[in-house]
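ok so i was messing around last nite and threw this chain in just to see what happens. nothing serious, just curious
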Amino acid sequence: MNPLAVTQRERIRQHNEQEDQEMQERTNETKTEDVHVEVDKHPEKEKRVYFLPKCFCLLIAVLALIAAVVVVVYYFRDKTSVDDLRGNVTHDKKPIEECHGISVELGDTIVIKCSFLEIITEEVVAIYKNVAGAKTSDFQCLKSVDEKNVTCTANNVTTCSSDGKVELRFLDKKKVKFTKTVRVNVIVPSSSLTTSLRQIFVGNNSNFFNLTCEYTQDCSNHVIKFLGEGKDIAGTRTCTTTYSNKDGYSIKCNAIISGKVFF
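result:
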């Protein structure tokens, strides 16, 4: 074999190995640099990207919690009713069924008004419960256009016997389906109380007093007494009482009182 040819192939082989080695070293350096970038720089980038949103979300959560606590404290402080303890829960207001008692002056006309939640299809009549011989014809009852309101008006003026209760009857085919009772209070604003005192002299310088007291126009029967320092001072007393359903009671009492009581 030609020695020159061998030497030439050996040089080419060595040259190729050297180039392969250099290329391998450059590849390793490139990988090392890539690993360095991947390991050292990527966490910093991740921290920059995700740190602010996380802080922002945490801040919102804390503020929401504080607001919820403030609302709960506000609603539940110094609450007494059940609705207050629920946080001021209010129910829808329902219309109230009304058929209230009334007060009427002696000599005026009784007018009873009732309102209902539902339509009243029944016939309505009214009658005194405490008046002897009372009839449903004593009242005239009418319903409103929507049939949810009833007005009963007495045909005669109010008397003392009108004081008491009036019953409203709701009839279905002439049979009582249900009733409502209304209290009627008769008042007498013109009641009056008059008194008079007359001194009478008799022999031996003695005297006595004639004292009269009269109470009129009241539907209640009262007892008249003559008192001095909490004690009955009337030697003799006579009383007369009259009554009429239209004008009420009239009470008149006369007493004879010794002059010694006054002097």
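not much to say yet. Confidence is low (pLDDT under 50) at residues 1-6, 31-42, 91-95.
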